[in-house]
Every structure is written in structure tokens, then in C-alpha cells.
Amino acid sequence: MALGKPVVISSVGRPTSSHVAANPAPHFDPLRPTIFHEDWWLEAATGSNYDVAEVSTDGRVVGRLPFSMTRRFGVRVMRMPALTYFLGPAIDEGEGGLNTRFLKRLKITRELIDQLPSASFQYVKCQRGTGDVIAFQELGFRTHVQFTYEIEPIAVDALWWRLRNKTRNIIRKAEEQFTVSQFTDSDEFVRLFRDNLCAKKLQTEIDCTLCRKIISSSLDRERGKILIARDDKNQIVAANFCAWDATSAYYLLSTRSQNSGNSASSLLLWEAIKDSLSRGLVFDFAGLGNKGSVLLYAGFGGSVSSRYVAVRSRRLTRVLGELKSLWTPENYFY
What we know:
Elements: H1 39-46, E1 51-57, E2 60-67, E3 69-72, E4 75-78, E5 90-91, H2 98-114, E6 121-125, H3 134-138, E7 142-151, H4 156-160, H5 165-177, E8 179-183, H6 186-199, H7 208-220, E9 224-230, E10 236-244, E11 248-256, H8 263-278, E12 282-284, H9 291-298, E13 303-313, H10 315-324
Parallel strand pairs: 4-6, 11-12
Antiparallel strand pairs: 1-2, 2-5, 3-4, 6-13, 7-12, 7-13, 8-9, 9-10, 10-11
Helix pairs in contact: 1-7, 5-8, 6-7
């Protein structure tokens, strides 16, 4: 079965169809269920400006909820840190029947929320595996659902034939035009990201200094990877950054030059997905940014998955937020 010509990738290559995890993921910790819950990530993403609510039973920690407090437009707010997509309550519910574990989760979540400091605005986006946000609703949060796109770990050749014909053709064509390789310069990656946005006259709210620190910390721990595509003139025309934990790899940041077209980005995305498969991980697109990204992601043969969001704000803050939305530019983070 032909999957297009080989792509030159340092230490990546094409996964075999047997789908053996050649690069084992870190051990799963229910109290740090995602890479975003880990202390080193939070240090980098907040500039050490974070705290953790904890609940213990019989001297053992059974619940954690990291959070970061900042000031925005003169009011105190709790927001998601830079490049941090999911940061909900992490709970070790222990053993017991379905109802027993549900009641434990509910109690622990209530106690975690009660520890959060007073703020005009509080925003929590829960990770994969969070089954409900009942405790948040009980304590005055408004809750809703956002969506992400996921690809389960299967054999690469099986996934290849799930791709839309158009997507496969784009990847085949891109393999003839570009060379893919691994990249380790976080400073250069962030510069490319910033320069490409400026060239397109677009804006982003991302803090490039924190972004650089996150990427560097991930690379140092071998928990992240930058992939780049070069054209026949050896110029970098596209790049992306992914990071992973024990269960998932996250598509966190991508950039492409103004005249590169979509094919280089699609090729890099395919290579990132294959790397995730080689680790036996779910590939999480970390959200659906806009109509264009929805169409792009749908071509890769995955499925839509929901994530719970909880928001609590004071009335004045809600009014200010609604007014701000009238002049805030679109977030081109994805």
C-alpha cells in the first residue's frame, strides 16, 4: 500500500502498520492528568504565577486544581495560562461503585472550587475524561461545551485510508515539494510565528515570551517537538509544535509563510499525527479555531469530541466583556 514518497524526518519516519509505541509516553498520574497540569509546564506558562487548590483525605491528596490569577482591564481574573488548553479539576476518586465514585468526585470538586480566591472572572476548561460539571453549576458557574477534534491511536495505514481523497492528494503533492525535518530552535520558531502573523496583518493575544519558554521546556524534557517544512530553496515555509502527556499529543501552535499555501501545513500536520500514533497516543487538535480549521481537520479522519467549560463572573464584568467583544480582533491562535 503506497502512502506517498518517504519524507526526511530526523528521528520520526513513518510508523509501522503494527502501531507499536516506539517512544513510550510518561506514566499517567490522575492528579496530573495532562501535560498542562504538570508543575514545570505551569511554571513556564505563567512565569511562576500560579497556585494549586488541593483536597486531602487521611493525609493523601485526592484532588488538585491549578489556577493562575492576573489583572485584566483593572479587574482580578482567573484565566487559562498561555498555550494551556485544558486545566480542570484533577481527582483521584479511588475505588468503589459507580455511584460512590461519582459522589466522591462531586464532593472533592466542590471543595476545590471553594478554595479558589475571589475574582471578577473565573474560567475553567476541563480536560478529556471529565464527565460532568455539576459541582460548578451548583456553585454559580455558567457551563457550556466547546469542541475539539481527536484521532485515536490506530495503525497509520488504516488512518491513511480514512483521510479524505482531497487531503491525501494534498499530502502527496506536498511530499514532492517540501522536505520535513525536526527543529530545535524555539527562539526561531516563535520569530517565524510572529513574523508570519505580521506579514498577514493579523494579531494574536499569545505572550511570545511565555510561548518560547513553554516550547523550550518541552523540548528539554523530550515532551514536545517542532516540525518544519523547507522548500527547494531551503527556506522554512511552515512549522508546527506539539506536546504530549501519558494519553494525548496536542497540536498547539502552527505557522506558515504568506505564499506557502495549505499543502505544507497539511503535510506537517500529517507527520505530527503519525508521530502521535507511534507513541500510542490520542492526537488532540486542542480545539476548533474557525471554519477553515474545522474543514481542514475533518479531512484527517478523526472525530469531534466535547470539552466542558465553566465560567463565573460578576455582573459588571459580564457587561464589560460583552462590550469588549465588539472591538476585539479575532484570535488567530490556531
